Amino acid sequence: MKITNLAKLKPKKLIVFDLDGTLAPTKSVIDAEMSSLMAKLLAAKKVAVIGGGKYALFQEQLLGKLKAPQELLQHLYLFPTTSTSFYRYQRGWKRIYRHELSVAERRKIKQAFAAALAAVNYRAPQKTYGQVIEDRGTQVTFSALGQDVVKVLGRRGVALKEQWLKENKPLKMRIAKLVAKAVPDLEVHAAGFTSIDVTKKGIDKAYGLRQIEKQLHVKIKDMLFVGDAIFPGGNDYAVVKTGVDYVQVRDPEQTKKVIAAVLEK
User: Fold this and answer.
1) Of the candidates 166, 176, 111, which has an alpha carbon nearest to the alpha carbon of residue 143?
2) Residue 237 belongs to what domain range?
3) Residue 159 covered by a domain
4) pTM
5) Total structural domains in the chain?
6) Residue 194 shares a structural domain with residue 161
7) Using 50, 70 and 90 to split pLDDT, how confident is the model at 190?
8) Which pLDDT score, from 0 to 100, does residue 171 have?
9) 38 and 113 share one domain
């Protein structure tokens, strides 16, 4: 159920966050205020983070800036690449599972992207930064401006991604639909500003919530999900079908208000 009034938040055992656009700007690190709030939240609740990025990005965007004692990290659970893998802290970060795509599946996805881009007469930006189609093992991701645009350009890179989506959202969704038609046995997510992710069938953020329920023994009714794209076509929208209570935020600044409200409870 969508929660629109933070004053009506019910106490929850576990808070689940999207990463990009929710805890941090796209492909950027959490700021000092978010780090402090997350540490306070970890002292009071279990916390899970589900995002489309690979584990290395979780380390860079979240863990590298999170100022929390090691004993509190035991309350933090990470689900990179749209929950195709799961990490938890056990005297260091340990991988619990990983749903790898086969070599044949990854080859088929790359071929599907090439065919879809040709079908829409796609014109790539004059300059890209890093890989445009990245094989993450558990996920293959198309990023229109390249995987490293924010790493290289910082805030200008974030602005470029926002501008690309503003100008190309219908095109992006068309590409995603063509890829989905070409690989019906796999899952296609039109994620973030410039990305399209492909994973094994049935793996989305709803799957992530069910894995949290299974792995951590917390019922979905006892969770709260916070994300910036909980709308039809958004990469967080899958959680709605689980019946989880959720708050849709615009950006990390709104997320900070949600965390503050949770802490007040």
Assistant:
1) 176
2) 6-99+203-264
3) yes
4) 0.88
5) 2
6) yes
7) confident
8) 96
9) no
Q: Is residue 1 situated within a structural domain?
A: no
The 10s digit of each residue's pLDDT in 23-55 is: 999 889 999 999 999 999 999 999 999 998 899
60-75 confidence digits (pLDDT tens): 999 999 999 999 999 9
Residue 228 has phi, psi (to 5 degrees) of: -100, -5
Looking at the fold, whether 32 and 95 belong to one and the same domain comes out as: yes
Q: What is the pLDDT at residue 19?
A: 95
Look up the CATH number of the domain holding residue 254. Answer: 3.40.50.1000
Residue ending a domain, choose from 200, 220, 249: 200
CA 118, CA 112: separation in Å to the nearest integer?
10
Paired tokens of 246: 């959720």
Residue type, 68: A
Average pLDDT score over the chain: 94
Question: Can you tell me the distance from the alpha carbon of 16 to that of 47, in angstroms, rounded to the nearest whole number?
Answer: 6
Mean pLDDT, residues 106-111 taken together: 97
**pLDDT for res 146:** 95
Residue 23 maps to a domain: yes
In a domain, 108, yes or no: yes
